[in-house]
């Protein structure tokens, strides 16, 4: 499979990924190579990854705890301290082997340690392959508030090894599928229709490349998210608030990112129907498709009020306005739409009806 070229790095796939990695390591005189893992990728992915390394290098393994709840500045401090204790210098390399939480955090740690060391991302979940793999966004959460602290900084390369998907459970796969469906909704109605026909993980693997390619094309047009790149946030304004609320509420089961964003795409689909011209037929298509893959969540009036309160922290806000990405139709998105707050509860009512 061919590689996808971004502005300053490339995304390489499967066998080609390890060939490029080994060539890169051979041509760079790294003092130490650090591999950041969590307890899952340490056990399930690291042995296979290390078996593909050709050559003798000094490796150090740093393990963090998995999960969004650990995507914090405190975890970063622990990794920074480990790097210092293990003698990392500005000629060190960090390889982030894990899902989106780990690659986001690891990229941020590498970008700030000694004002920046090289890093390579090896996403191991479907979500991180099709979303976090492209764009250079790094960072951590501030309490329950998603991705409030971070920088945009590009890796040396991204390596996508589809075999790592075999280590995931069905819920993790389905979470990543939400971001792929989003790519169809905001940019390619034919892709949306083709994804609706996916029946197995092997079929899904064939769609990873077009999802990465689509996101890369968007990012290349707008690396720092001033304009067109904002379309990638469809479903994420309400979705992130929902994810944050379930993360901080001990009485609620934590939602995976894709599960929360799926709800966001239905509710923001309703807003699109009311504001930007999405047809009722396409709105129903969006709702029916997502509810086929994601179980419906019940929201009380209290839940909705608390979720809407979190909207004021959204990163896309400016000048006191909450900015949404909405759909004109499936395959075409519109950025920077402000919404009358009285529609928010109607959107949740539509989701639950």
TrEMBL record:
GO terms for molecular function: 3-dehydroquinate synthase activity; metal ion binding; nucleotide binding. Residues 176-317 form the 3-dehydroquinate synthase C-terminal domain. GO terms for biological process: aromatic amino acid family biosynthetic process; chorismate biosynthetic process. The gene is aroB. It is an enzyme of class 4 (lyase). The lineage of its organism: Bacteria, Pseudomonadati, Bacteroidota, Flavobacteriia, Flavobacteriales. Its EC number is 4.2.3.4. Its cofactor is Zn(2+); Co(2+); NAD(+). Catalyzes the conversion of 3-deoxy-D-arabino-heptulosonate 7-phosphate (DAHP) to dehydroquinate (DHQ). It comes from Maribacter algicola. Keywords: Cobalt, Lyase, Metal-binding, NAD, Nucleotide-binding, Zinc. InterPro entries: Dehydroquinate_synthase (IPR050071), DHQ_synth_AroB (IPR016037), DHQ_synth_fam (IPR030963), DHQS/DOIS_N (IPR030960), DHQS_C (IPR056179). This is 3-dehydroquinate synthase. GO terms for cellular component: cytoplasm. PANTHER family: 3-DEHYDROQUINATE SYNTHASE. Residues 62-174 form the 3-dehydroquinate synthase N-terminal domain.
């Amino acid at each position: 499979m061919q590689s996808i070229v971004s502005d300053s790095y490339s995304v390489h796939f499967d066998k080609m990924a390890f060939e490029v990695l080994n060539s890169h390591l051979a041509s760079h005189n790294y003092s130490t190579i650090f591999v950041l893992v969590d307890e899952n990728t340490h056990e399930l992915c690291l042995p296979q990854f290390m078996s593909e390394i050709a050559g003798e290098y000094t490796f150090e393994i740093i393990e963090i705890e998995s999960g969004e709840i650990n995507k914090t500045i405190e975890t970063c401090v622990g990794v920074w301290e480990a790097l210092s204790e293990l003698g990392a210098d500005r000629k060190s390399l960090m390889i982030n082997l894990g899902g989106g939480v780990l690659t986001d955090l690891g990229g941020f740690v590498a970008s700030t340690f000694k004002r920046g060391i090289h890093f390579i991302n090896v996403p191991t979940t479907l979500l991180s392959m099709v979303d976090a793999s492209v764009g250079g966004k790094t960072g951590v959460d501030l309490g329950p508030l998603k991705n409030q602290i971070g920088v945009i900084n590009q890796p040396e390369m991204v390596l996508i090894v589809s075999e790592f998907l075999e280590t995931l459970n069905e819920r993790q796969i389905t979470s990543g599928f939400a971001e792929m469906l989003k790519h169809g909704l905001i940019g390619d109605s034919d892709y949306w229709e083709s994804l609706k026909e996916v029946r197995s993980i092997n079929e899904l693997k064939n769609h990873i490349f077009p999802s990465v390619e689509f996101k890369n094309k968007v990012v290349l047009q707008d690396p720092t998210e001033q304009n067109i790149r904002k379309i990638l946030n469809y479903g994420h304004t309400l979705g992130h608030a929902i994810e944050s609320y379930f993360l901080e509420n001990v009485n609620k089961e934590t939602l995976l990112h894709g599960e929360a964003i799926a709800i966001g795409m239905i509710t923001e689909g309703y807003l699109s129907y009311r504001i930007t011209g999405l047809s009722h037929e396409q709105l129903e298509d969006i709702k029916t498709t997502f509810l086929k893959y994601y179980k419906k969540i019940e929201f009380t009036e209290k839940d909705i009020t608390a979720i809407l309160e979190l909207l004021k922290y959204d990163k896309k806000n400016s000048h006191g306005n909450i900015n949404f990405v909405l759909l004109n139709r499936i395959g075409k998105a519109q950025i920077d739409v402000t919404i009358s707050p009285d529609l928010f509860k109607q959107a949740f009512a539509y989701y639950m009806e």
